[in-house]
Every structure is written in C-alpha cells, then in structure tokens.
Amino acid sequence: MQLISLAFVILWAIAFSLYYLAPERMQRYVLLAASLLFYVAGLRGFPLGLPATWLTTYACGLWLRRELERERAALSGCSGRESKKEIRAAFQRRRRSAQILYLICNLGLLAFYKYAVIALPFLERLSGSRIGFLEHVMMPLGISFYTLTAIGYVVDVGRENCRAETDPLKLLLFLAYFPSVTQGPFNRYDRMREQFESGHAFSYDRMLRGVQRFVWGAFKKLVIADRLGIFVDRVYGVETSSVSGSILACATVLYMLQLYADFSGYIDMAMGVSETFDIMLPENFKRPYFAGSVAEFWRRWHITLGAWFKDYVMFSFVMSGSGRKIGKACKSRWSTYGKHVVPIMGTLLVWFLTGAWHGRTLSYMLWGVYYGVIMSVSLVLEPQYARWKEKLHIRDGRLWSFVCMARTWLIVFTADVLIRSESLAQAGAIFTAFLTRLAPTSLLTEITSYGLNRYDFMLLIVVLAVWLAVSVLEERGADVRTYLASKPLPVRWICYYGVVLTLLVTGIYGGGYDTAAFMYQSF
Amino acid sequence: MEEKVLEILGEHCEEALTYEGDSMMEDGVIDSFTVINVVSDLEDEFDIEIDAKYVVAENFKNKEAIVALVKKLLEE
Question: Structure pTM?
Fold first, then answer.
C-alpha cells in the first residue's frame, strides 16, 4: 500500500476517526491495528521477518533488563572500586554475548532477504542442483528499517539508555508504526514510548498542520520527483554512447533533486500523517544541499540513519576494547596522525555498512567506500585546509559559502552517478562522456527529446523555485506553516489552493491512479 | 578537574567553550570525530573509561554536561 493511494487515505481516515473516538488508554491499540493492516496489505511472500524480529527483540530486551537488575544487586552488596569493576565487566560480557547472538539472528535474516537473490546462482552452482524456493524469496516490507530500529532498541536497553518494554504489543507498535515502517525515519524507543502511552486530545490546528505537511510531501513526490524521474530514467535507460556528456550531467543533477524530492517527500507525508495522531517523528532532512561539506551534508540528509550508524556502530567500535587498544597503540606510534586511525577505521566501517544497507550491488559498496574515504581524508587534512585558506587570504562570507556548497554538490553528483547507473561499466562510460564529449550546445537542442517537453521544464523551474524559497525560509529559522498561518486569509488560501491545484493538475499519476513507488522503499 | 576538562575540550573545539545552548552535537558544534578525540583524551587524563553508553547527546550537550560526566565517572 502506497502512502499516495486511495486505500491509504481510507485507512488513515478510519484510524484517525477511531483514534480520537477511542478512550485515551485505547488509542495506541487503534494505531497498532492500523499498522498491522497497513503491513499485511503490503506483504510480499511469507511474513517471517517482522514477527521474528519483534519476538527476539522483546525477549532480548527482557533478558537484558533482568541481567541489569542482577548487576545492580551484585554491585550494591560490594565495596571497593576494583571488585565493582570486575562485577561490571563480568555482567557486560554476558550481555554482549546475548546481544551478539541477537545480532546474528536479526542481521542474518536481513542479509538473507537482501542477498538471497544474488547469492542464488552461486549456491546453485555450488550444490549442482536447483534451489527453487529461493527464487520466491521477497524482501519483507520495511525489513531494512525495522531491523535497524529493533537493534537500536536492544543496544539502548543494554546501555541503560532506555527501559526494556514489558508490554509486547507496545513494542510491536514501535516496530511496525505505519507512517514510518517502510522508509523511516528511524525512531528511538525512549522518545516514542511516552507518546504512545499518553492520551491525545483532538486538535483542529494539529490536524490541519499534519494534512498540510502530507500535501506538501505529495507535491514534492508527484509534481517534482516523478516528473524529474521521467527524464532521468529515459537518459540513463538509453545506450550511454548515444547521449552527450551535458545531457548526462543534466540528468544526474536532476537525479540529485529527484532523490531528495522523493525521499524528503515521503518523510513529509509520514510526519504529516503521524502529526495528525499527535505522534511527532524525528526530522530526517535539514536542507542538505545547503551543506558546506560532505560531513555536514550527511548530518542534514537521512539524519536518523546517520545518527543510528554513529551511535550504534561508530561509537561501539571506537569505544570497544579492540578500538581502544588500536587507538592507544597508534597514538604512541604516530604522535600527529595516530589519533585519527581509529576514527578513520570507524568511518570506513560505517560507510561500507551504509553502502551495503542501501543496496546489494557493487556500486553501492563503492558508493559507501567513496564517502568513507572522502570523510577520512577531510578529517586528516582539516588543519592543512585551514592553513591553505589563511595563506590564500580566503575570508568567510557568502562567496566562500557558495564555493563550499558547490564543492559538496560536485562530490554528491559523482556519488549519484555510481548509484543511478545500472552497472559500474555504465558509470564508467558516463564519467568518460563528461570528459570527452560534453557538447554543451546539445543541452539546448536535445533536452526535450527525453520524455519532458518545454512546458514540463517551465513548470519544473517554477516549482523548484517555490521549493527553494520555502527552503531558504526554513534555513533562516522560519516555520513555513506558522508563517503562512499568520498571513491574511486570501494569501493563505491562494497558497493552499495553489499547491493543491498544482498537485492535482500537474502531478504524475500512473495508470489506474497508481503512483510510482518511492525510491527509498527498495533499500 | 573542571579546568583540565575544559582545556581538553578547548584543544579540540574552541567553539564548544563559548557555546551557550544545550544541544552541542545536534547543532553541529562538535562532530563525532571531535567527541571521539575528547573522550580519548579525557580517558587518558583521568584514568577513566568512558563507555559508549555515556556518549549520548545528553552528556555532550554543553561543556557543563561534559564536566558533570567526568565528575560522575570519577566518583563511581
């Protein structure tokens, strides 16, 4: 079930009505029922994924809670720093073993679903017989998202940053919460629990704000992303040697915008739906194309995924026993650069895993490594950059900010060629085209030969300008919905009707009113 | 102790010493690399172990929170 579908709107409307009609203590069960309905409607193949993750997460959380209680009891009957340290270490080892077992089960399940299809030919060659059942294995809805969410919960319980949940249904709601189950954002249990537990009274203003955000997200998806997608798909779909470098460059720039409009559009819709239930999800985007560096770009793009990898992979690795040992050894061996070794190892690990999480092709692995290397090099060279900047008398200001932004766009542009290409060979051919047959004039003569006519481009210029204006306002700290609400009624309604009419008249709707699937849904 | 913590913090991020908000990590004042280096130097200086569970936004929201974290770990 797509978020932009009649079925979803009906589900949302029914859930919304029942939610506010139900007694406050029953509201979360309405959300749970809606989430399970949404999940079942989107099921593909045998539904092993979510129940398995839910039950193992619940059991592991309770076990960790019991272990932590036992540790506290042991510590209370003990004096002396050293013996306390020993007790802590012993309990920590037990907890770590249980968590590793849990990770093997859940990451194994994720890897099985993600990689079974590509592993099939190798397995068949190895066994010498056909493995029929693997052909029908399909990734369960949202498995990449709820698996990481569940792992985060278990790690937080083990770290005592979150209390283990004793109510299995509340935990199931957390994992399967329908606005965020398919594409995030990644929720943290300590922030969601309170919202699920407390009662929520109906508010017209909140409902309106939620619907506004949903419509804005749909606008980005249908008017911008899906329109850009027509051009991008057409250019990347034809034989690369028949397209000029400038058309390919234009398609890649539009792909950068398409991916952003598609994913942030989904997040706006998910957050809008959730806001109508008075459940606030964490922000996932903060105008990433205004970033002055790649590191900042990733602090603004898919924020909750970056935070997940930072908290649960980066810090876990760097502050593990092995991480500390390597760090100490490197610091004493190389006084200047030694301190960077472990953070760089952590960064490369995080980005390799980020690539593997996003896709199962070599291109995604390379994409991850590319970002990891760039971040690592930036870390080491940061003091050098500062010296160069001083020597060249470069002053901070608008021009320098723009140069930094343009540098970030170029890096992201290169990475996006890798993930948009069908293969590494195509990516190579595209980079070659940029360098050997740019033919800039073909941009003017051929741009309308790839699915979009001049009116489409004119519309795109207008809607992208509107989006840019909204982004600039937000970047300056304004809340656009509050800003609009403060305007006189005619201005407000012109804006609202403008967006809705543009959405209805110019949105890209597929046959039978099916819209194109969201891009991040496939990750 | 407090002076030493601030000195270490200042070595890695001067801006953190003048920051007056309460979400230093989210506001991008200190990034994860800085946090790792600060943690490493604090561990060496005070002979403490700062476990990953303590490396959360709450304990690094401003310089006072970092001082409070070191104080807590020293008392444990």
Answer: 0.89
